[in-house]
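Interim report to the steering committee. The following record documents the input for Nitrite reductase (210 residues).
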Amino acid sequence: MSHSRIAVTSSMNTGGTLFRPEQLVLIGSAAEPGTTIEMTPFKQLYVSVDTARLQDAQQELIQSGLRVLPTGFVTKSLQACNFCKGAEEAGLSFARRLDEAISGLEVPVPLKIGYAGCALGTSEPLTKEISVVKMRDTFDLYAGGDVKGIKPVFAELLLTKLAEEDVIPAIQRIIQHYRAHSKGKEKFNRFINRIGLDDLRKLSDKKFSP
């Protein structure tokens, strides 16, 4: 019997990564007997599902309010804060749209994209490869974080005071450029160091085309 692995996570909400009991039961029933369910650093559950019923299982999980994404070399689901200032002030609806737009895209090396609803940054945005920080009515965009190993590097400010409608296109341009111009399995931080933060800044600015 063949099986396929999927990434399952909860829909973004105030309070953090929250699963209802019935959702956890459904995830357990979707898993192929004899396999394990892995909790990843990306706040995703990796679940092995019988390939013959993969589509049905995915649909059931989605209908229960869960998100189902591919595993492997893709952009991971948005690593967001707990929206402690409230859904409206912290930008929950925008974070959900951002998550839908950037999750599950094929990339040379898995990318973590972060979101913080205020400058407190409880989601640790500067530790992610790309991050968005809401600053009242505008957004700051950071890039280049890499905290694996004993020589961590924090993300640097790329663009500031972005309007909401400019954030997603800017990130999409960055990801497209990384996919097109990385050298093999080049890590995103090394890619930025090679091409230069200024060049990436010009690329991601709305006045410049991809």
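Strands lie at 3-10, 38-39, 45-50, 66-69, 79-80, 113-116, 130-135, 138-143, 156-162. The committee is asked to note this result when reviewing the revised timeline.
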